[in-house]
Specification:
3 domains; mainly beta; Immunoglobulin-like; 3 helices; 522 residues; twelve-stranded antiparallel barrel; Porin
Amino acid sequence: MRPWRTVAATLLVPALPVVLIPGAVRAEDPPADVSASASTDGAARPPQRIGYGAMPGGLHVAAAETLPQGTVELGLLSGFGYRKSLLAADHAFDRAMGDVAVAYAPLANLVLGLSFDGRYDKHTGMGLSDDGYVGDPHLLVRLATPLGKVAVGGQLGIWVPGKDAPSIAASAISIDGRALLSVNAGSATLSIDAGFRLDNSVKSVDQPGALSIPDQVSLGVSRFNAALAGASLRIPLGERLYVELEGSTDVFVGNGAPGPIVRGGGMLGIAINDAVSIVGYVEGAHVPGIKWSEVMAHGPIALVPYEPMITGGLGVQARFGGRKPVAATPQITRNEKPVPVTVIETADLTGQIVDDAGRPVVGARVTIKLKNSTGNAVSDDKGTYSIGPLRIGKTVDGKTELDDTGVEIAVEVASKKPGSATLTLGKGANTAPKITLDPMLPPGQLRGVIRSVGSGRPIDGATVTVDPGGVTQTTGSDGKFTVDLPPGRYKITVTAKGLAQQQLDVNIEQNGVAIKNIDMHK
């Protein structure tokens, strides 16, 4: 392993009380609008949120959000990852990880971040046991601006891998640029980033092929540039609790480039107070494999940042500085010519709708009309309705004028005649007179008597079916039946036990009565 990385990680990992994964430090949780994260007044101190490089974001996804001007963010992270069968069936790859990151917002739309990412890898199986430390410094610069519920921005990242402590390898400096977008969707905030990394990190390693295969796996450097993309969804669960889901990918490009790294994970965070937050996370990653022929040849492998398949951990962060809210002392004075105080006067109206037998009418449509307004209501299962407040006048400087108190009540419901009532309203609660709805006369009617041909006696229990409509009636001991029907043509089917079925057509006219006497035989 390289001495510079070894020293950095040795100092970093033991110093972390709790942690996460590289680049996944805490951030600022904006208020309901994404734009609030770039606010210039700095008065609000929203709940904090673990984020990207001590800036707002997820595990790997940067958000188009910054910090309140003058704020300093410190993040401490740690975690553990595991992968099996990377080099052989019995190969196990364990990784302990740690971050320390700090971010500062010199301007409302600008935030600068510096993180040191360390890890300790241990390889077992294949008849070997190998371990080592690696540490990397990263510099981040982010610009973002709000546009209503949408915020846009850009981020530049600089990775400075070293060769021999305390020197750095200038030729190995790697740069990535990302375009950022965050959208406040009301119940959640969606962040998307996309960019490209110019990766020169492999130049920090002299003769990587001379290292063991496990050491090459743990270097974390790459021979290939990469296209970067990711998306995260942050969902508040109350004022100080949130959950964040995200996916990200590094797509390697260049001759002989392996497949992409694809990640998916989630975080659960809580703000203990305005200054301290903690978070827990879990993440899964699909990383390119290594061919068995490469392992057996002990030669150089495709150098990419190999990651564990599953990672989990904890994090803690603290916020310092920023502008403090200033409490204003209320000052109230009375104008020399005060505007008259106007109070709107209102009335509430209740009433009941019943039928001609005094039973409640359910679902009746009630329309209440005043001179300047109209209200609507529907009667409930008790036939009652209520509506209000209805504006009936006003009081100006203690003088009341009620100029819209006359109300007309109209009621309609199917199969009943319309009803109405009038009333003069007063301030507050009013009760309308009970409105009774009479039944409508049927539009048409079918009457008949069913008899036996042999005896001429009425047939008791005969069934009469009318189609269309499927209306069915059963005769009594007098053999009679009566059916109310809308105007139109119908077919009548009559059945009775022990007798042949009878069918006939009938025409029903508006407000007319059709009489049919039906004789049945065996």
